[in-house]
Write a structure and sequence with these properties.
- The structure is a single chain.
- The chain has 5 helices and 5 strands; from the N terminus they run βαβαβαβαβα.
- Strands 2-1-3-4-5 form a 5-stranded parallel beta sheet, with helices on both faces.
- By secondary structure, the protein is α/β, with parallel strands linked by helices.
- It has one domain (3-125): Rossmann fold, CATH 3.40.50.1970.
- β3, α3 (66-72) and β4 (78-83) form a beta-alpha-beta unit.
Length: 128
């Protein structure tokens, strides 16, 4: 499969829709799941471990642990999308961008899931 979009809460689905538009326009196979790294870590782990996606897009607001958590349990590329839930999204942006060494997460702009989808497509294109 191409891309798995995972978001931390149903309130993030409006941001998910923008990524879906880009993936649909480019005929990229994708799936969407909702699971919280804070409230449902076992569910997130199960989703990621059982996914055959080549790239993950993780969308989260507030402390935005989801992208880093996903990156900690896969060797595949993870793109984080910060959501503007509070503080204009700066809290989420910093949570995603300031990952520790060895747990890389690509980070796009606040609420910019369209760019996350475009980046995922470029990553998929590397496979040939």
């Amino acid at each position: 499969m191409g891309v798995l979009i995972i978001c931390g809460s149903k309130s993030d689905l409006q941001v998910v829709e923008k990524a879906e538009e880009v993936l649909k326009e480019n005929n990229v196979e994708y799936e969407v799941k909702v699971a919280s790294a804070h409230r449902e870590p076992d569910k997130v782990t199960e989703i990621v471990k059982n996914s055959d996606a080549d790239v993950f897009i993780a969308i989260a607001g507030l402390s935005a642990a989801l992208p880093g958590f996903v990156a900690s349990i896969t060797k595949k590329p993870v793109i984080g999308v910060p959501v503007s839930a509070k503080l204009g999204g700066l809290d989420s942006l910093l949570s995603i961008a300031q990952m520790p060494s060895g747990v890389p997460v690509a980070c796009v702009g606040v609420d910019n899931s369209r760019n996350a989808a475009h980046l995922a497509i470029r990553m998929l294109n590397l496979k040939g």
